[in-house]
């Protein structure tokens, strides 16, 4: 039995999921189970994937799983203060040398890049931004429909 290094013991991906993440995972699992059940009957399920844990990416025409609802922090603020990548190169956060990329999480406001789309090249940050933009536009469309109905 060897000793584990501090880095391997404290990896963010080893933390248990939050309750919010569990809810989104259950939505996706239920949707998948409905698809499988429908495959036996030959009738498509009458369910919208966007209402069941998925977001439509218009650029690629693909469904992306929602891992957390919008405006939900992945960790308490005290933990987020401890997480910073410190990247400062021209192509910041684009390689595994970035702590956030290596941990497969998006950069945060505490990182050197401040998770700014103009400077941060972390694919997880860009994906999170796409999902937030899609959710924001969906919310605005819903609000506009309510205003028209009034």
How would you describe this structure to a colleague?
This protein is mainly alpha-helical and 150 residues long. It contains 5 helices and 2 strands. Strands 1-2 form a two-stranded antiparallel sheet. A hairpin with a 4-residue loop joins strand 1 and strand 2. The radius of gyration is 19 Å and the shape is globular. The protein starts with 5 loop residues before the first helix and ends with a helix. The relative contact order is 0.11.
Largest sheet: 2 strands, antiparallel
- The whole-angstrom Rg is 19 Å
Biggest sheet, strands in spatial order?
1-2
Query: Helix amount, in percent?
Result: 40-55%
What do the pLDDT scores average to?
A: 77
Give helix and strand order, one letter per element, not per position. HHEEHHH
Q: Determine the N-to-C terminus distance.
A: 68 Å
The helix tally amounts to 5
Low-confidence stretches: 1-10
Number of strands: 2
Structural class by sheet pairing and helices = mainly alpha
């Amino acid at each position: 039995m060897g000793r584990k290094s501090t880095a391997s013991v404290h990896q963010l991906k080893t933390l248990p999921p939050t309750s919010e993440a569990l809810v989104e995972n259950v939505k996706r699992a239920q949707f998948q189970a409905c698809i499988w059940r429908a495959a036996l009957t030959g009738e498509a399920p009458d369910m919208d994937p966007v209402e069941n844990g998925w977001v439509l990416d218009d650029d690629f025409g693909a469904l992306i799983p929602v891992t957390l609802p919008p405006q939900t922090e992945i960790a308490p603020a005290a933990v987020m203060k401890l997480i910073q990548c410190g990247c400062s190169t021209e192509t910041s956060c684009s390689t595994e040398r970035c702590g956030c990329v290596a941990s497969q999480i998006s950069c945060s406001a505490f990182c050197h890049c401040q998770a700014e789309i103009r400077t941060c090249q972390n694919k997880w940050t860009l994906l999170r931004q796409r999902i937030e933009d899609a959710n924001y536009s969906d919310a605005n469309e819903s609000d506009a429909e309510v205003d028209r109905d009034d």
